[in-house]
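Hi Q.,

Before the meeting this afternoon, I wanted you to have the adenosine-5'-triphosphate prediction in hand. No need to reply - just skim if you have a minute. The sequence and ligand are here:
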Amino acid sequence: MLEIKDLHKSYGKLVALDGVDLRVSKGETVVIMGPSGCGKSTLIRCVNRLTEPDTGTILLGGKNVLSLNGRELQNLRRNVGFVFQQFNLIGRLTVLENVMFHLVLGGMNQDEARVKGRLALEKVGLRSTEDRRPHELSGGQQQRVGIARALVTNPEIMLWDEPTASLDPILVGEVLEVMEELVKTTATTMVIVTHEVSFALRVAERIVFMDKGQVVEQGAPSKVFENPQSDIARLYRKLLVN
Amino acid sequence: MLVFFRDGFYKDLIILLVLTVIVGAVFSQGIAWAIDTYFGDTLDGMIGEYGEYDVILHIREEAKETALRELERIGEESFPGYRVNQTLTIAGQANFFFGFPDAYRTREVLESITSYFGAVPGINGYTLMVEPSVLIRGVHPAAREDVREQIEELEGVKFVVKDGNNLVIVLLNEDWISGVTKKIEDILQQYQILELRFPMGFEVDTQEVGDQALAILHAQNTTGEDVYKNVTSAEYGEDLDAFLKTLVEMRDFLGSYASQVRIIPEPGVELGVGELILLEDDLTIEVTGMYGDLVEAMIVEGSPVQSTDRIVQKGYRYRNDGERGEFIGDVEIENERYRLAYAVDESLRLLAELEELSVQASTAVDNAEAVLTTFQEALMQLEVLQVQMRQLNEGIASGEAKSSGEQFLVTLLLNGLFQTLAQGVINTGEESLDSLQNLDIEEMRKSLAGISTQISNVQEIDVTAIMEQIGFVRDTLPDLNDAEIGQSIRLINTYLAGQVIPGERVQLLIQGKPLDAKVFETIFQEELENPYLHTYSTSVGMVSPDARGEVFRILKEVRSIVAGMLSIIFTMIVLILDHATIFSTLKYVRACERPDKRGWKRLFNPLFFLGGTLGTVILTSVYYLSRSQIPFFSLPFVVLLGFVLGVLIVAFAERFSPVHSMELMAGQSLGLSNVQIMREVVIPPSRPGLLNILNRFKQQF
Ligand SMILES: Nc1ncnc2c1ncn2[C@@H]1O[C@H](COP(=O)(O)OP(=O)(O)OP(=O)(O)O)[C@@H](O)[C@H]1O
Ligand SMILES: [Mg+2]
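Predicted structure with the ligand bound:
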């Protein structure tokens, strides 16, 4: 499904990605963990070209992502659901509009888009708030709108960039619940960046540890936590034990 | 980054650009036109139609009602068909426009304004504004009649009016203006005034020198065709002389009023006039004169402590960095101003004391009079007593007294008593009494009365009023500090430097080939043996533009300048409201791009070029479409200004219009095209400009 090879990215002198290789199979749920600043966001943003990598290759569903342009790139992006840490909702649009406007702009007619939008909102438990504006919602609700927006196109792959990191601890639960439900009920390929260790343990088929722009260890959760090879993995195990 | 335009946003941008230019031109020209119309109308209302009025009468504001009645009376009586209109009142002066009917618009009437209107209440002078006319200012009296005669001969000239030092050439109609003006200039050009000035203090017999100079001119005159006249007169230009003299007086007065500063340089210290010296107390002084050991200076910054005593401070050289340099010597400061203030204060106190004293003195005189009266009474009683005593004594001595035994006893007793009394109190009795009697009580009374009158005179003087007056004088003593005085003196000096201080002056009228003043300066200096004289050349009059034409020309200029300013402002507003949004987005997009630029491409940011071009296109089009014209703004300058504005907007785009990078990124991740991102995500929440308004037609959500 997704194949990343020798990906490099620097911001000026700062090396954010230093030769990353990663393969994700269709339907797989992969959790990426690592300390702040190790390049997780940069990595998944490269997948749908929100960030342009310097060198390397990315194949998604057989297509060479880095060679796409214009319309092809837009089509690819519609097939990739992206959930942001800061939700990134359009402030002036209502909840329903936020979830459906890109369908309409992509060529779908209004009514169909509205039906799909409501369906997606239902999946995240937010049917009743469709006429409100994002700022009238709690953080947890806003992030669930973000999730609905990402999944409304039925994407083949969903990329999650620390979806709960900017939430109140009390609100984290409702979002994780929705995520877990999604992982269980859909066949979508998931690449999730998160620090929620126990969540990772529950849903991940594979955990990838990153440090300083490189993948340092990966494997099944039971394996990497029971027998960590890298310092990072050991650190996360400590978190789990506590 | 420029890929951004490929999917159609450039169309939006072009529509925006065209609309911007149209709106800008309409806006700038519209406002300028409105200003133009407004002023034009106001002006017509103020000075009437062309040729409607002939004279402006300046009248003190408080008299304007009576004046108007009087003007109407004069008009009806002497100029039937007259027009009068009261216009602006400026600085307490009302201005009445008066128009004569054609029959009265003659040289005689216009040269007799004063005799017709001199008795109008509150009149304060007049200004001729006959139209159409040409005005010649400052016509030299020596050439006036000559010039006048020649001008009256010109075709198109109706008559010539002398108005003070000016000549007003009234024309048949306005078509003659430029032609006649040209000819008048030719006439004036035949004349020249050569002026010889001697510096102040040179006492010369100007007539004699004038004749000498004339002789020199004649000697130099080769052709013999030209006419030279000695036209030296004391009157011409007296005002300026008086003004300059006043300035000199004022400077000297200020100088004496400032603190007197003397420097006592340390041995070996060299100072120069104009040098700055720093003192303690943050004072700065400037050396103004050096007379051997005596070095004078004035304070140019700071105020010395207020003291009537001499202040001595240490002086240091003023270094270029404003810090103190080496010690140069002691500096003494004496302040006459403070002394004066002190003296005034003291005299005020004296007056207060005097008033107090006069009250006390008058009481004292009253008391003295009472004492005198008592004293006189006592003296009279004493006299009576003395007479009785004498009689008694005599009686006793002669034995003539036929008294009973009792009487005798009493007398004896009394006598003894009185002896004792007289001895004890007034010493040797009679002598003292006599000297007492010798006191001239009446004289004393008289002088006492004199004093009393003087005191009451003193009391009648209104001391309080005097004190108030003196207090007033003290308070109005110019409230200048030394630094201000220093600055004023410098200022006056700078002005005077450009002026010839009035001195003696000789004027020669030259008719014919103009002479070079500089050449003749040398000749005169040699021949008249005076190296200090200067020679100047002046014309005998200057043609001034028609006042109204001038006003309209200025108005037109103002209109173009206003339109120009508005074009610039409009361009800035448009760039800030609309284009900053686009540029901040483009800058963000560019920053996210793969940095595959090599070499110069990395340094060259096409955004700045794009911004500059946009700025140029908008400003240049709006500027020229609105017919703007700012002095010194040539086409290349306008183009450059537009470019600079555009580049500045690109440089500060995020400040004017911050990028909502999160929404933008969401748009990208949802697979929107760039034009969709602009229309749906970036522009709607941006500032409400043309772009925002235009976008509403395209926006789907
Ligand atoms: N646009 C950018 N410009 C410059 N540096 C950047 C930019 N984005 C990320 N970086 C830097 O690149 C490095 C990797 O950033 P990245 O956001 O990928 O880390 P992360 O693993 O997601 O960290 P976090 O857990 O804090 O989100 C960091 O040091 C970050 O400061
Ligand atoms: Mg991150």
